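Troubleshooting entry. Yesterday's outputs looked truncated, so today I'm pasting the complete records for two proteins to confirm everything comes through intact. If either block looks cut off, that's the bug. Protein one:
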Amino acid sequence: MPSVRILSAQGERPIMVSGELVNHAENHMTVHCGGGSEGLTVGSKVVVDIDNESGSRRCVVNSVSGSGTDIVLSNEATHQADKRDYPRLFAGLPIRFRAVTDDEASAWAEGEPIGGHWAEPDPYMNFSVGGLRFDSEDALEEGSLIAIELTIGDGSTLWRATARVVRIFAASGDRPSSAAVSFDYLPPGAREALSDLTLQIQETLL
C-alpha cells in the first residue's frame, strides 16, 4: 500500500501524520495511521502527499475513527478556485532554503533547527500565496521537498515553511535555472502577510 503523509497547519502547531492508503476513490480516500492523528478534527483542511504521486492534494477530513487509526478524506472542491484568487506577482522576498527528507520537514515545521547547507537565492522572485518561483544554483529535483525560511514585508518575522518542487526551469542565456515550488506547510500569519503584499502590489499597478 502507498505511503501517505498528512499535514494540518490550522492549529497553533502543525500536525503531521504518516500512514498507508487503504482505499482510494475519485473524490475520497481512507488512510490507516499508526497513531498521532488524534489532533485532526472533522472539517480540517489538510495537505496530503501520496508516495509516487507528483504534487500534493488539498483535502478535508471527513471522519476520524475513535482510535484515530483510520481517516477518511475528501478532495477540497475549492482548491482550483483558491489558486485563481491569488495571481503570481514579483517582489523582493528574502528566503533561504534546503532540500529535506520528510522527517526533517516535520521537524522544521514543528520549530526544531535543522543543519546542513542552506541556499540564499536572489530575493527578487515570482510569488503567490500558494508558492514561489526563484533562481536556484543548487540542484533540485521535481517532486522533492524543501524547507524554507522567508521574510515578508518589514522583515520583523522569520517564517518557517515547507514546499514541494513542482517544476524546474533550465538555465537560458544569462538567466540561471529556477525552481517553482508549492507550499505544503505555510503558517496562517505568513499566508496573511503574502495576501497583504499581493493587495499592496496590485494597488500600485492600478
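Protein two, checking that the full record survives here as well:
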Amino acid sequence: MANLKLTLEERLWAKVERRGPDECWPWLASRGPEGYGLFAIGRRAGRRGRSGRAHRVVWEVTNGEIPNGLFVCHRCDNPPCCNPAHLFLGTNADNVADMVKKGRHAGNLKLSDDEVRSVCALASNGGRHRDIAILYGISDSYVSAIVRGLGRSGLLH
C-alpha cells in the first residue's frame, strides 16, 4: 500500500498551477478576501494547525525562512500568484511604496487632491490612521503612505 501522507511541499505544489517560468502560477485552493492563497500548516489528527498565505510558504520552501520584519511581495501584483520568480522580500514601507508607485491601490484612485490634503490634516491633528482609513474607505497603510508624502504621482509634498 502506498504512503498516503504527503509532505508539506507536495501538498503545497499540488495546489499551484505551474506554468511557464515568466508566467503567474495561480493558487488553486482557498483564498482570503484580498485574493491571497491560504495554506494550512501543521495540522495533525485532532489538532488545529495554523493557516498562512500560500506565497509566503512558497518563499520559505524555495528560499528559506523569512527574516523578521520583512514581507513577501509580488513583482506581478497578482495576489494568488505563487511563482517564486515573481516574489521578493521587502519591508512594509517597500511594499507600500511599490503599491503606490504602481498606482494599484484602490485608494490611489479614490481620493482627490483635496481629500489627500484633508487626510494629512486629520493625521497631523492627532487622527488615528485606522479612523481616517474608515472615513475615506481606504486602508491604514495607504493613509500612512499619504502622511509620509507618497501620493498619486509618487510624491505629494
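Both blocks look complete. Sanity check on protein two: The first strand starts at residue 38 and ends at 41.
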